[in-house]
Design goal:
Helix content: 25-40%
Order of helices and strands: EEEHEHEEEEHEHHEHHEEEHHH
Radius of gyration: 17 Å
Number of helices: 10
Strand order of the largest sheet: 5-4-1-8-9-10-11-12-13
Shape: globular
Bound molecules: adenosine monophosphate
Largest sheet: 9 strands, mixed
């Protein structure tokens, strides 16, 4: 199947980030923001989400810079979703300091999808009920990919499992996969997830790379060489944006897609927040060539 574009629903956020070396507050972030920026290097993107009236002009400027379609971006009275994260010396672990849903709390959008297009719908990390709401409105031919996080696995597992029944491809990290399925190994977790619904899974393994698993294929890659990590926030969303963007631009070659995903994740972690990213397909290609 050929796809024309990607719709991305998820958080659009103002993040407070602390790392061992740096920190910042009210930085542009959010799962849909990171996913959209990186997918836009490959394909037309339409972002689906909501911001409050405190959302800075700089944020709108970023969407404009990457030509991200904002027809499905709602602006409401109230606070933009905000999140605080603190990374430890080992960047593979972080603590969530706070999560304020703000205008997301009452967000039930009517989404403008185009029935004439073959598109990918990416359900970036957000409440599973909102992911389900987007699934319910999207044309049945769309390819659906999803991501999630421990908060929803711990608090909204039933709703999340319902979402997974409609999903073609799931992005998930190792810990999330074992905790969602109640298993001890990644292989067992992957088998259980494939039974629930997705045809394929990408397991993100932090500084160890990523593995794609479907019923008949497995494909693993390591990480980009020579990168210094500034802020790991958004790596997972950037990975998904690059991977799915590549499926649209280059077709269903998983080895290529997983390498583009790894390269886009690498670029995301090289900068604090999303507002200072300055990415191009050339930068992505260069980084892709450093992957072992
Ligand atoms: P990642 O590092 O790929 O997990 O993505 C980090 C982004 O996810 C940050 O920019 C946050 O604003 C956003 N985020 C954190 N917690 C949540 C949540 N509960 N729902 C949606 N987005 C979130």
């Amino acid at each position: 199947m050929d796809y024309d574009k990607i719709y991305i629903v998820g958080s659009i956020a103002l993040d407070d980030i602390e790392t061992p070396d740096t920190s910042g507050s009210r930085l542009l972030g959010g799962s849909a923001t990171y996913g959209s920026i990186f997918a836009s290097a490959f394909t037309p993107v339409s972002i689906i989400g909501i911001v409050g009236d405190d959302f800075p002009q700089q944020g709108y400027d970023v969407f404009k810079k990457y030509d991200i379609n904002t027809n499905n971006l709602e602006i409401a009275k109230g606070s933009t979703f905000s999140w605080g994260g603190k990374y430890h010396q080992d960047f593979n672990f972080r603590d969530t300091l706070f999560t304020n849903l703000g205008v997301f709390e009452t967000y039930h959008p009517t989404i403008e999808f185009n029935n004439q297009e073959n598109a990918i719908l990416f359900l970036a990390n957000i409440h599973p009920l909102l992911q389900q709401h987007a699934i319910n409105q999207c044309p049945s031919e769309y390819f659906i990919a999803a991501d999630t996080m421990n908060l929803w696995i711990d608090n909204n597992k039933k709703e999340l499992i319902n979402v997974l029944k409609h999903v073609n491809l799931l992005f998930i990290n190792e810990e999330e996969a074992t905790s969602l399925t109640g298993t001890n190994t990644v292989d067992d977790a992957a088998n259980k997830l494939l039974e629930i619904g997705p045809d394929s899974i990408v397991i993100k393994r932090g500084s160890y790379g990523a593995t794609y698993i479907s019923k008949d294929t497995t494909c693993s890659v390591g990480i980009c060489e020579g990168l210094s990590v500034v802020d790991p926030t958004g790596a997972g969303d950037a990975f998904a944006g690059g991977f799915l963007g590549s499926l649209i631009k280059n077709g269903p070659d998983i080895d290529i897609a997983i390498r583009y995903g790894t390269a886009t994740a690498g670029l995301a972690i090289s900068s604090l927040g999303a507002q200072n990213l300055d990415i191009s397909i050339n930068d992505i290609e260069q980084l892709k060539n450093t992957i072992k």
